Amino acid sequence: MVGDKDWIDVLSALLTPIIAFLAVGIAVLQWKINRNRLKHELFDRRYEQYEAVQKFLGSIFRSGKVSIEAQSDYMSGIVGIEFTYSKELKSYLHKNVWCPAIDLECTQAEFDGLMAGDERSALVRKAADIKIKLGEEMDRIDDVFRPYLHLGH
User: Fold this and answer.
1) How far is it, in rounded angstroms, from Cα 42 to Cα 31?
2) What is the mean pLDDT of the chain?
3) pLDDT, mean of residues 107-112
4) Residue 39: how many CA atoms within 13 Å on its side-chain side?
5) Domain-embedded: residue 59
6) At 153, is the pLDDT very low, low, confident or very high (cuts 50, 70, 90)?
7) Deepest of 20, 66, 105, 109, by most Cβ within 10 A of its Cβ?
8) What number is the average pLDDT over the span 126-139?
9) Is 127 a domain residue?
10) Which domain holds residue 65?
11) How many CB atoms are closer than 10 A to CB 80?
């Protein structure tokens, strides 16, 4: 009987470290799961902002104009982009997407009321140049966003 008592004492002594080891293992697994969940949530938010930029540019090319609705959707879609991406990306989008789009809207508003002539033709050419620039941005935008939309584990 003394041998059985020794095994019970040994197992009792090992029980606490085994439980502690299991608790640490579960904590590590929970940490990894939470880290991956946060990565996915950040990706989802970033992708929504990326889609807002794509939809804005797409709406310009579908309609040939910059609508107030598209502007509103774009602005609400990229809210907080400096936090989910970077200040540099926000500046890039402002300079290369937003400003040309607003310039296009203003140029089109100028030539809408003009009769055919040199002034109207010059404004139409300016609008065409802006659309070309926005088209180049649309081609480039995937490369700009790609480093941020990579899910590495």
Assistant:
1) 16
2) 89
3) 84
4) 12
5) yes
6) very low
7) 66
8) 92
9) yes
10) 45-148
11) 10
Q: What are the structure tokens assigned to 25, written together? A: 């293992």
* Calpha distance 130→14 (Å, rounded): 74
CB atoms near residue 52 (< 10 Å): 19
* pTM of the predicted model as reported, rounded to 2 decimal places: 0.77
Q: Find, among 47, 14, 23, the residue nearest to 142 by Cα.
A: 47
Answer yes or no: is 18 within a domain: no
> The tokens 């946060």 sit on which residue?
38
Contact partners, residue 56, CB within 8 Å, separation at least 6: 70, 71, 73, 74, 77, 97, 101
Quick: pLDDT tens for 40-83.
Answer: 899 999 999 999 999 999 999 999 899 999 999 999 999 999 99
Give the Cβ contact number of residue 8 at 10 Å.
Answer: 10
Number of domains in the chain: 1
Helix%, strand%, coil% for the chain, nearest 5? 85, 0, 15
Matching residue, tokens 């197992």: 11
